[in-house]
Design brief:
The structure holds two protein chains of two kinds. By secondary structure, chain A is mostly helical. Chain A contains eight helices and no strands. In chain A, 76% of the residues lie in helices and 0% in strands. Chain B has nine helices and two strands; from the N terminus they run H-H-H-H-H-E-E-H-H-H-H. Classes of the chains: A mainly alpha, B mainly alpha.
């Protein structure tokens, strides 16, 4: 009997039933739902409390759509890289993320009045986006920790960028400040700058959450 | 060409069915599946690795990775791409480890060499105290497997020969040893 056959016999002898990982589309739906809920609360609560929200203009919608493309691409990439054998999906994710990032950065300077207006509050918008990103990021982390990613860091980095992009969307749509530098720092670069910070947090939490999900 | 592709994909529905049964805890189906994919894995690894001396070790790693990742297989999806991705990752891992080792290694000076009991010359690199304590806490068989493979850097076959067991059994001992070490050093096992 070869060494491999001995190993196979031992693995088969100790075999236990496993809990299957949820399908990627279920996780994608759960993440989108979580992000939608957070965005709905962020935009909806002020309206319910009597505040006025300005209807987004054409440029806002285009930048918002770019964030959605970036988020969808980055999330696809993160989900596909978390499990073996989803290379095609990974490639679609790469294409989506690159397109989304390009569009986000392309539209940022195309802004209206004073370029310097609200530059300082850019950090506030980026922080709000980061807080909103925590919800979809938590859903993603729970999934990735239960999966078997070849490179957890790579998976979590793309997941963090996707989550931040989703977080930046409602912040951008509800933001009254106009100024290209504010948009660039607070909205367009938020997925990249905040994404890296969120990635560090996710990476630190990954091992404990993975151990927790494997033990129970 | 398409005929060749068809013949390569022919057993995949059967493999997928066996994997589904294995996920439900059917050890017989699992053994059949792994024995059936073994030649495919060996060929795949040897083509990608280009180093015949490491092929058997990497194939064994692939079998362990398939075992660890079996919950990620989705019924209804083709089994082949899933398995091949795991094999590819194992090959990449092996190549990374090899190139990392080549970068780090330098010839030992005479002062750094010591003789072990068997007469073989080994490195006298010190272990951290926590690692030494964790190693000492392992059952003797697991400790020996970890020491031979990782501290003395013997190949699995050489280590198994020295212990007097099959390479497969040694690999399982080492795998359990790593899990226990991780738990003892602050993480948890698999």
């Amino acid at each position: 009997m070869s060494r491999h056959e001995t190993l196979i016999r031992e693995l088969a002898r100790d075999l236990r039933p496993v809990v299957r990982l949820p399908r990627l589309r279920s996780i994608a739906a759960a993440t989108a739902g979580a992000a939608g809920l957070a965005a709905g609360l962020y935009v909806g609560v002020p309206v319910l409390l009597g505040g006025a929200v300005e209807a987004p203009g054409r440029l806002d919608v285009m930048i918002g759509s770019s964030h959605i493309v970036l988020a969808a691409g980055a999330f696809l990439l993160a989900l596909a890289s978390a499990v073996p054998g989803r290379r095609t999906l990974e490639r679609v994710g790469v294409a989506g993320a690159c397109l989304g990032a390009a569009l986000v950065l392309l539209f940022a300077p195309a802004v209206r009045d004073s370029a310097l207006a609200g530059l300082g509050s850019g950090a506030v918008c980026a922080l709000k986006a980061t807080l909103l990103a925590l919800v979809p990021a938590a859903v993603l982390l729970r999934f990735v920790a239960a999966a078997e990613p070849f490179s957890p860091s790579r998976t979590l980095l793309f997941g963090a960028v996707g989550a931040l992009s989703l977080g930046a969307l409602p912040v951008h749509l509800a933001c009254p400040i106009e100024g290209s530098l504010h948009w660039l720092v607070g909205h367009s670069l938020a997925p990249l700058i905040g994404g890296v910070l969120l990635f560090v947090a996710l990476r630190l939490l990954y091992r404990p959450v993975a151990d927790l999900s494997r033990s129970g | 060409m398409s005929e060749r592709r068809d013949s390569r994909r022919a057993p995949e529905p059967e493999w997928a069915g066996l994997m589904e049964a294995a996920q439900a805890g059917d050890g017989v189906a699992y053994e059949r599946l792994l024995l059936a994919v073994l030649p495919v894995l060996r060929q795949l690894v040897s083509v990608r690795l280009g180093d015949p001396s490491s092929v058997e070790d990497v194939v064994q790693n692939v079998l362990l990775s398939i075992h660890r990742a079996r919950h990620t297989y989705q019924p209804g999806r083709p089994f082949g791409p899933w398995m091949r991705a795991i094999a590819r990752n194992a090959v990449v891992d092996c190549q990374r480890q090899r190139s990392g080792r080549l970068r780090r290694e330098r010839p030992l000076s005479e002062a750094e060499k010591v003789e072990d009991k068997s007469g073989a010359t080994v490195s006298a690199a010190p272990l951290s105290s926590s690692m030494r304590r964790a190693l000492e806490a392992l059952p003797p068989g697991q400790r020996q497997a970890v020491e031979l493979i990782h501290l003395r850097e013997l190949s699995v076959s050489e280590a198994a020969e020295r212990v007097g067991i099959t390479p497969g059994a040694l690999k399982v001992r080492a795998h359990r040893g790593y899990r226990a070490l991780r738990a003892l050093l602050g993480g948890t096992g698999e």
